[in-house]
Amino acid sequence: MRILGITIPDNKRLEIGLTTLFGVGRSRALSILSQAKVDAGLKPTELSADQENAIRKVMGDFKIEGDLKREVEANIKRLKDIKNYRGMRHARGLPSRGQRTKTNSRTRRGNVRKTMGSGKKTVDKK
């Protein structure tokens, strides 16, 4: 089963398989399946053509995949353009939601391998 060019895994239940789409989590997957009147425990291989079409029709109401990614990128670009605090944090590659950066956020700052020492120097005995 393919939705918006993304293949839904055949070996997983629909409830889990739909989460491979960007913007669809467990709760949204369950709401999509309930609106389409499809059992969440089914696997994509067990669906009929009518059920697949019902799922696609319900998913058309939500903003997912490419549309959602473009909207998120546009929001971040807007924040950068107006030069507010969150936009500057995005531009510098730092955490934008108030986390501390002195000891954490190694991956966000880009120095994963570099760690701080204890401050003690070893003395060579000669």
User: What do the pLDDT scores average to?
Assistant: 87
Provide the number of structural domains.
2
State the end-to-end CA separation: 72 Å
List the uncertain runs.
none
Which CATH architecture of the largest domain is right? Answer: Orthogonal Bundle
State the strand order across the main sheet. Answer: 1-2
Shape: elongated
SS class: mainly alpha
**CATH C-level of the largest domain:** Mainly Alpha
Query: What are the secondary-structure elements, in order, as H or E?
Result: EEHHHHHH
CA-atom Rg in angstroms = 23 Å
Largest sheet: 2 strands, antiparallel
Strand content: under 5%
Number of helices: 6
CATH topology of the largest domain: Helicase, Ruva Protein, domain 3
Question: In short, what is this structure?
Answer:
This protein has helices at 14-17, 26-35, 49-59, 66-81, 85-92, 106-109, and strands spanning 2-3, 6-7. Helix content is 42%, strand content 3%.
Give the key terms.
126 residues, two-stranded antiparallel ribbon, 6 helices, 30s ribosomal protein s13, domain 2, mainly alpha, Helicase, Ruva Protein, domain 3, single chain, 2 domains
Structural commentary:
The chain is mainly alpha-helical. It has 2 domains: 2-59, Orthogonal Bundle (Helicase, Ruva Protein, domain 3), CATH 1.10.8; 66-109, 30s ribosomal protein s13, domain 2 (Irregular). It is 42% helix and 3% strand. It contains 6 helices and 2 strands; from the N terminus they run E-E-H-H-H-H-H-H. A two-stranded antiparallel ribbon has the order 1-2. A hairpin with a 2-residue loop joins strand 1 (2-3) and strand 2 (6-7). Helix 4 (66-81) packs across helix 5. The protein is elongated. It starts with a strand and ends in a 17-residue tail after the last helix. The mean pLDDT is 87.
